[in-house]
Design a protein that fits this description.
By secondary structure, this protein is an alpha+beta fold. Helix content is 30%, strand content 43%. It has a six-stranded mixed sheet. Strand 3 and strand 4 (82-93) form a beta hairpin. The relative contact order is 0.21.
Length: 136
C-alpha cells in the first residue's frame, strides 16, 4: 500500500503546534526546500535548503518575533506525493503588538515518507503591517 503523505503533513503540523521542532524537522528530507511566499518578511533567503536552514531562518525567527504564533491547518488534501494544506497563521508581533489572522496555503511534495519541497503562500501584507515596516 502506498504511503499516505497526508499523515506526514498532519504530523508536521502537530509537532509544530506542540513546539516540538525536533520532530517536525525529522519529517523533512535532508535536502528539503522551503520556498517562502513572495514578499514574505522572511523570504530574503528563499528557498531555504535543509532542516537547519528552515529552523534557523524561519522557525527560530517566528519564535523570536511573534507571541503565540500558530499555523493551524483547516483542510489537508492529498493525492500521491502532493499534499495541499489550507489554514491560518495567527499571532502577535512582539515589537508592535499587532495581530495577524492570515490564510495560508502550503503545497508539500514528499518522497519516501519525507517532505522534500514546501511552497508557502500567504497574505504577506498582514505580516508587513504587523511588523510596522521593520522588514522593508
Amino acid at each position: 500500500m502506498p504511503h499516505d503523505y497526508r499523515k506526514t503533513v498532519e504530523q508536521f503540523y502537530q509537532a509544530y503546534a506542540r513546539k516540538d521542532l525536533a520532530t517536525a524537522l525529522e519529517l523533512l528530507d535532508p535536502q528539503v526546500e522551503l520556498h517562502a511566499a513572495e514578499n514574505f518578511i522572511y523570504a530574503s533567503g528563499s528557498p531555504y535548503i535543509g532542516p537547519d536552514a528552515i529552523h534557523d531562518c524561519i522557525f527560530a525567527r517566528l519564535d523570536a518575533d511573534w507571541e503565540n504564533f500558530t499555523a493551524i491547518p483547516e483542510e489537508i488534501l492529498g493525492a500521491g506525493e502532493v499534499v495541499i494544506a489550507r489554514g491560518r497563521y495567527r499571532g502577535a508581533f512582539k515589537v508592535t503588538g499587532s495581530k495577524i489572522n492570515a490564510e495560508f496555503v502550503h503545497v508539500f511534495r514528499s518522497k519516501v515518507s519525507k517532505i522534500v519541497i514546501l511552497h508557502s503562500y500567504t497574505d504577506t501584507a498582514q505580516f508587513k503591517d504587523a511588523d510596522g515596516g521593520q522588514w522593508m
